[in-house]
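Running co-folding for copper (II) ion.
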Amino acid sequence: MIGRREFLRGSILAGAGLVLGPSLSHSDLELEEQLSPPPFDTDSLERFVDSLLIPTTAKQAGTRPAPDDPSRAIPHFRIEMREFLQKVHRDFPATRMWGYESASPGPTFDFEHGQDAYVEWVNLLPIHHMFAVDQNLHGAENGVPQVRTVVHVHGARVAPESDGFPESWFTQGKSALYYYPNRQDAATLWYHDHALGITRLNIFAGLFGAFLIREPFEDELNLPSGRYEIPLMICDRSFDRRGQLNYPIGPLFHHPWVPEFSGNAILVNGRLFPYLAVEARRYRFRITNVSNGRILRLTLSPEHPVHQIATDQGLLDAPIEMGSIQIAPAERADVMLDFSALRGRQVVLQNDNHEVMQFRVSSVRTEDSSSLPQKLRSVQKLSSSRATRIRMLTLDEYRDPIGRITRSLLNATRWSAPVTETPTLGSVEIWGFINLTKDAHPIHLHGVRFQILDRRAFDAEAYQKNRTLKYAGPLTEPSASEAGWKDTVRADPGMVTRIIVRFEAFAGLYSWHCHILEHEDNEMMRPLEIRRPNYSGNRS
Ligand code: C2O
Ligand code: CU
Ligand code: CU
């Protein structure tokens, strides 16, 4: 968490696209304080005056020969990243953002299972960054281009060369052609920037969108679809009084990185306090937490049940009735909401008692042929007995002499150190995250899906002293809402969080990391190399 002082640092310097040099001294702090206006208090804005934006569907640009069979033509998309202006709120001037196809969220990809496709991701962004780049961070050093991009489809099962490795960035005027097989269970995935050392800034600027995979059996479930199925990409931001995005600058000029961003405004699909006119029937909302660091706890007011039907990697066994939905950064929850008993009413979606958006339910009675199924799919539990290896990995945080967080790491190892997580393709492993910090960290592995085994309190002091794990509480099973397939798991403070993973699909170089973007950018990220069983030392 960051203090109010840090949080209030404004955007004048950052907004000018300056890279802050290392020569400025500590005593410039007061000057900076004067230069930086506090973030605009969005509480003063009128609520629910703008309608919810529904992202467009990505438009196919043409076809290309399939990689495995040139006689088969597969869809080809061309997606441009550009700077653009977006109305976030009626009473705000337009906000400068970066987005895919000049929108944030970018267009939604909507694929049937097995429908493979190419996407050419094109960088047409300015060459100067919208926010202060911290040249102390790995990969963002002096001499490296300020604006770099690389696209990752979060949760996608793709070959490493199309996964968006953080070092595979490209600059203005360049592009990358990625191949997506889409051979995986139906799920709500999302795409976002992943450039080394500036991911937090690029995503903050607006570089994200939804990526859906569907399966035919879902049709038989008769879930709400078409205009009754809506992605909600939710994040916190802060703004200056000119309505421009305001990313804070850290305590020192020469080290603008802040340990974790937290904003006072919550955007849904790029808008502040939007409303959605709904019919008095069932809807399906695919919710993604695209915040840099905020865990969302969503409730409805007046209270009304929500049924969660899917987690990160697809449908649950059966719907679960929830009073609130908690998702950490990068986690997803598909929910069903039935407005039929709320005809003519207004329902507010809240996050920790702050209004986020409003549903205006029509007073007209409507036919609703969709259903809330009893059973969704069967999620086979991965048994611990199949694991051939257990890795215990620490989550660490480092502080300077006056107690400020300077860096976070995985297993006390920096990004550029030789790869240590090298599971064998096809094998099953258990990974235990020993959280030695005071923060919850959403840990994400690329290229795979997993299940959460359990969480268990441990004695952190004893661990720090002699590296022995002394448990200090009973095993807690994952909550019902996290019991399905996952690709991101909340590792709570003071706990060992264990997951079980099968490294299926592809061999090669991926990454795993904390999805608090400030942590990821400051080396809470490590390579993950999935090796073929007959691995002999050369990279696949
Ligand atoms: Cu959502 Cu490595 O990312
Ligand atoms: Cu990912
Ligand atoms: Cu973290």
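Result summary
The first strand starts at residue 50 and ends at 51.
Residues 113 and 475 are 36 Å apart (CA to CA).
Job closed.
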